[in-house]
Amino acid sequence: MNVLQAVSLSHQTAALEWRQALQLSKEEAAAFMVSLKQEGLVDGVMLVTTCNRTEVYYESAGTPTTVIQDALLQFRNIANKATYTALFVSYTQTEATLRYLLEVGLGLRSQVMGDRQIIGQFKESYQRTKDLELGGTLLHQALQTLFRTHKRVHNETSFRSGASSVGYAALERISDFVPRKEFVHKRMLIIGTGQMGTDIAKYATSFGFKDITLTNRTDEKAQALASKLGLQAIPFADYLATIHTYDIIVSCVSAGAQLTAEQLGVPMQENRRVLLDLSVPLSISPDTGALPYTTLVNIDHISSKTEAVKKAREESITDVQCIVEEETKGFTNWLEDLPVAKTIGNLKSFFAAVLESELQKHTNLQDGDTVKKLAKATLDRLIRRPAGTLRTTEGAPRQVLMDSLNQLFQIA
C-alpha cells in the first residue's frame, strides 16, 4: 500500500544561503518531478519551492525519504550531502505528512504567521503536478483536504484577519530606516511582478507611497499590473539607467545576475536608501549594503511588526488547530476506507463478470435495454448487503471480512 511522505528543507532548519542552493525554477521543478516518476521512485509527487522552503511531497509503496533527499541534492549538483542531511526534516507516515502539509499550507509554519502567499504557492505547485499528470490518490486527497481546511479557517476563525504576508512585513521593515510620514515623498521601484512583487505593489499605496514604478522581464506583465493598480511601469531593459534615482528598491526576481554596487551607484541625495532583497537566490549583491546612505535588507531579516494582527492570529491558533484535528480525522477515516472501497469494487467486478457471462448464454433475449436494466438491478442488490456490512464494521473484524471475501471469491 502506498504511503504519503515528505522531505523538507525550510527556514525553520536552514539559513538563507543553504535554502537558496535548493531553490528550483518552475522548469527545474517539473524536470525533477518527472525524473522521480521515470525512475520509478514515486507514484505521485508535488514539489513546493519558495523563498522559505523546498519540499517534496510524494506517495510510493517503498521509497525511503533519504532516497528522495539524495535525488534532490544530486539534481542540484550539491556535493556536501552530509552537511545538508542535518538540515532536512522528513515525514514518513501518511497521517503525519498530511498534518505537516496542513500546517505549512495554512501558514502556521511561515516566517510571518498566517502568511497568505503560501496557499497560492501550494495551488500553483499542485497545478504543475496535475499538468504533468504526476498526481496520485493520496496526494490528491491531501491537497483537497488542505484547500477545504483553508476555507474553513478563513470562514470560522480570525486567523486570516488583517494583512500580514511577507510582502506586508517587508514594507513595515522600511519604517525602521525611514519615518513613515516620509513615505509619500519617496520613489519606489519594484523589480519583478510575480506573486511577491504583486503583493508589495498592492500594499505599498496603503503605506503612503505615491511614486511607485514596476518593471518585469516580461514588460507586458508589469504594464498590466501597473494599469490595474494605477502605478507606473518601465521597460526591464531600461530600469538600470535610472535605478540610482529611487529611494526604495524592492527586488523580487529569483534568477539572473545580482545587482551590483556599481549598477546601483550612490543615491542622488543624502537621504537614506533602502534595498529590499526578497529573492531566493539573492538578487542584490551583499556588498551594496556598504554604499553610502544605503541599507540592505534580505528576506531573512524581515519579521512582522503588525502586533495587533500577530496577536489576533496567535489567539486563533487553538481554533485553527481544532479544525486541523477535525480534517485530519476525516482524512484518516477516508484512508481507512480505501481497502474497503477496493474490496467492494473487486467484488462488484466479479459479480458483473458472472452476470455478463450468464447473459451471453441466452442469445434469445431480444430487448437489450431491459436486459441491461435487469443486470444492473441484480448487481446492485448483490453488492448492497456485503458493502453495507463492510462499511459499518470497524477494526479487526472488518479486516477479517475483507480477507474472507478476497479468499472466497478470489478477487484480491
UniProtKB/TrEMBL annotation:
Location of the Glutamyl-tRNA reductase N-terminal domain: 7-157
Active site: 51
UniProt domain Quinate/shikimate 5-dehydrogenase/glutamyl-tRNA reductase: residue ranges: 183-302
Catalytic activity: (S)-4-amino-5-oxopentanoate + tRNA(Glu) + NADP(+) = L-glutamyl-tRNA(Glu) + NADPH + H(+)
Protein name (Swiss-Prot/TrEMBL): Glutamyl-tRNA reductase
Annotated source species: Pontibacter ummariensis
Domain of life: Bacteria
Gene3D superfamilies, A to Z: Glutamyl-tRNA reductase, N-terminal domain, NAD(P)-binding Rossmann-like Domain
Gene name of this polypeptide: hemA
